[in-house]
Amino acid sequence: MVVCGLACWRCRWLLPLLLGLAIIMGIIALAGRGWLESESAPYVQQASLWESCTRGEEDLNWNCESLMDYGWGRAAAATYLVGFVILVICFALAVIAFSIEILRFNFVRGIGGLLFVVAAFQIIGLVIYPVKFTEDIPLTGDNMFSWAYGFGWASTVVVIGCAFFFCCLPNWEDEVLGNIKPTSYYSSPERAPYLN
């Protein structure tokens, strides 16, 4: 016997869990010093969302300058940070929405709309940063946009996926709430002799 149907009410915490994962990746992106790094030794350049640091090949100390002195640096940090704050708000709203017994599906769709706003803010910050950084900051040696910048994009991709799921979830309201009985398919050997 095969049982088909959505058991989504039991796994309703999957979407808030994914939003929590996006928040963790966003924290790593905000705090990480690996937005831009030297590609190979000697490692003479590294940058975060907030500052750019260089050092000589034999020097052990980093000389850092704040990116907040540039208009584009403030814009990139502000847009990514605003998106992150809205993401935290969406996470709290999702936990509230999935905690109550009677799920408000219009409320869930609103969270999806807010998540698209989050994605837009984060994408703006993630695009401004590399374009203006390479124009205004002198680069030394071979450099690459590295792991912390990648976590920023990973957070954005998870947010976009969650936004689609939150917006589409009301279309399966009955399945999620368990109002539809699962369909059972049973095939006996007597009814399907051609399968033997």
From TrEMBL:
<feature type="transmembrane region" description="Helical">
    <location>
        <begin position="12"/>
        <end position="32"/>
    </location>
</feature>
<feature type="transmembrane region" description="Helical">
    <location>
        <begin position="77"/>
        <end position="98"/>
    </location>
</feature>
<dbReference type="InterPro" id="IPR015664">
    <property type="entry name" value="P53_induced"/>
</dbReference>
<dbReference type="GO" id="GO:0030057">
    <property type="term" value="C:desmosome"/>
</dbReference>
<comment type="similarity">
    <text>Belongs to the TMEM47 family.</text>
</comment>
<dbReference type="GO" id="GO:0098609">
    <property type="term" value="P:cell-cell adhesion"/>
</dbReference>
<feature type="transmembrane region" description="Helical">
    <location>
        <begin position="110"/>
        <end position="131"/>
    </location>
</feature>
<keyword id="KW-0472">Membrane</keyword>
<dbReference type="GO" id="GO:0005886">
    <property type="term" value="C:plasma membrane"/>
</dbReference>
<feature type="transmembrane region" description="Helical">
    <location>
        <begin position="151"/>
        <end position="172"/>
    </location>
</feature>
<keyword id="KW-0965">Cell junction</keyword>
<dbReference type="GO" id="GO:0006915">
    <property type="term" value="P:apoptotic process"/>
</dbReference>
<keyword id="KW-0812">Transmembrane</keyword>
<dbReference type="GO" id="GO:0005737">
    <property type="term" value="C:cytoplasm"/>
</dbReference>
<keyword id="KW-1003">Cell membrane</keyword>
<protein>
    <recommendedName>
        <fullName>p53 apoptosis effector related to PMP-22</fullName>
    </recommendedName>
</protein>
<dbReference type="Pfam" id="PF00822">
    <property type="entry name" value="PMP22_Claudin"/>
</dbReference>
<keyword id="KW-0130">Cell adhesion</keyword>
<dbReference type="InterPro" id="IPR004031">
    <property type="entry name" value="PMP22/EMP/MP20/Claudin"/>
</dbReference>
<keyword id="KW-0963">Cytoplasm</keyword>
<keyword id="KW-1133">Transmembrane helix</keyword>
<keyword id="KW-0053">Apoptosis</keyword>
